[in-house]
Hints:
The protein has helices spanning 10-15, 57-62, 66-84, 98-101, 106-116, 133-149, 165-170, 180-185, 190-205, 218-227, 243-252; strands at residues 19-28, 34-45, 49-51, 91-96, 123-128, 152-158, 175-178, 209-212, 231-232. By secondary structure, the chain is an alpha/beta fold. Strands 1-2-4-5-6-7-8-9 form an eight-stranded mixed beta barrel, surrounded by four helices. The longest helix has 19 residues, at 66-84. The radius of gyration is 18 Å and the shape is globular.
Amino acid sequence: MTSPPADHTIAQAIAHDELRLFYQPIVRATDGAVVAVEALVRWQHPTLGLLTPDRFLHKADRDGQLPLLDRWVLHRACQDLADLGPAAPDHVNVNLSAPTLATDFTEPVTTALERTGLAAHRLRLELSECADLNTLTHAEKHLKGLVERGVGVALDDMGTGSTDLRCLSRLAVHGIKIDKEFVSGMLTNPRDHAIVKLLTEMAHGLRLHVTAEGVETAEQLAALTRLGVCYVQGYHLAPPLTLAELTSTILTA
């Protein structure tokens, strides 16, 4: 697997308009309605073709450019959702990296909303549970201010990190996303099934929305629905789509 050359950075990709956003629908389990989309970045590299994040995020992290990338994704995702008009899903989910969470990220979020005109309640920030406790604790005060403006917050990759559960009770979180590894194994591994059930029941107890990622089969969808998972995301429902494909999908639904 080839990675971008050392002298080709995210900053250059942004300057040369090489980054692309794809959108994966988040669907209500009971009726299949698209309620939100998650923004997923790709790099249209001039010689290597379309690169997925696993081929460039590590280098971007080493270069200290993840906050720059997050800023670009925030603005483009908010602009795209605003441009879709009345046909757009209710929300767009944008991931914030650990280096961004370690900064005062209020400014890039509010700037993206103000410049694009997107209402704050239509943006949801996804925080990786793999971010360490100190980083999430630092982010708490910034999240509180954004939530007061109407921005939603979800804790991503639930079950994969070592985040203290006390942090979940303190952070201004509206929902959790169950990691795809547990979803993929839940039909054959009783422990994975138990973890999905536990996380779902915990979310309900905390009055949080719960979304299952990586839903690949109708059988997984049925099992998640029986457990009370409200929202699902994965290739069984829809792959990541370009903005044009997303628009076509919504208009023909």
